[in-house]
Design goal:
alpha/beta; Oxidized Rhodanese, domain 1; 5 strands; 18% strand; globular
Length: 103
């Protein structure tokens, strides 16, 4: 059922950088290849095509991808599963902080 009032919760990459100072769950929904190419240290790789099987214990999860489109889809799926999912707007394209992996 589509709820007109349910909007996708989103934060900027700048706000995410602040949030990362706390223990949070950050899911990177890009492909394993993209993830290996460079990701945020605290991010766990959980590709979009497997997100419907996600079974984390926490209620609140942050979701990132390359541009924000796949993470937006993942947030919808996670919300249907009862999570408080938050999309990182602009994704890795806008991320200014340190990354692990890649070049």
């Amino acid at each position: 059922m589509f709820n007109l009032f349910q909007r996708n919760t989103a934060i900027s990459t700048k706000d995410l950088a602040e949030k990362l100072k706390e223990p949070i769950t950050l899911l990177d929904v890009r492909t394993p290849e993209e993830y290996r190419g460079g990701h945020i240290t605290k991010a766990s790789n959980y590709p979009l095509n497997k997100i419907d099987r996600y079974q984390g214990k926490e209620k609140e999860v942050y979701v990132i991808c390359q541009s924000g489109m796949r993470s937006k889809q993942a947030v919808k799926i996670l919300k249907q599963k009862g999570y408080e999912a938050i999309n990182v707007q602009g994704g890795m394209n806008r991320w200014q902080g340190p990354t692990r992996g890649g070049k």
